[in-house]
Amino acid sequence: MRPEHAGLFHVTTRSIAEEHIFRDHRDYHAGVQIIAELVTDKFLVCHDFCLMPTHYHLLASFEENMLKLAIHRLNRRYASGFNRRHGRRGHVFDSPYTSVEVATEAHAFRLPDYLAENPPRRPWPWSSRDVDFAFVERLPWLETLEPG
To answer: How many domains does the structure of the chain reveal?
Structure first.
């Protein structure tokens, strides 16, 4: 059963069979745009994210009952656009998503480094650790971390 309570979560979703679901700049821009729209529509507060060729990571705060709805919207919107852009049909993601509540201080402090270590090279233009995105609301301990 997926969490329904409010909190800070590390969410990730992987592609089917390690297929590249972020293939070009259009795909990455679409992913960033959808996250920004979910922030604007108040489905989540984004603190950190990283889009990778086969998956994404999102560190975000969610209000009660919003995690499932927000990630469903993100994945549905992205998959529909991805299939349209690439003349493709069918599932894009392996499973709906994985969410882990960030409930300890140690986890909260380690997670941003873990996300930053994911990209194949640094700086990575599709990571909020390497680029300033206006919709990202850094957590207090992330404020002291330098991008890149």
So the answer is: 1
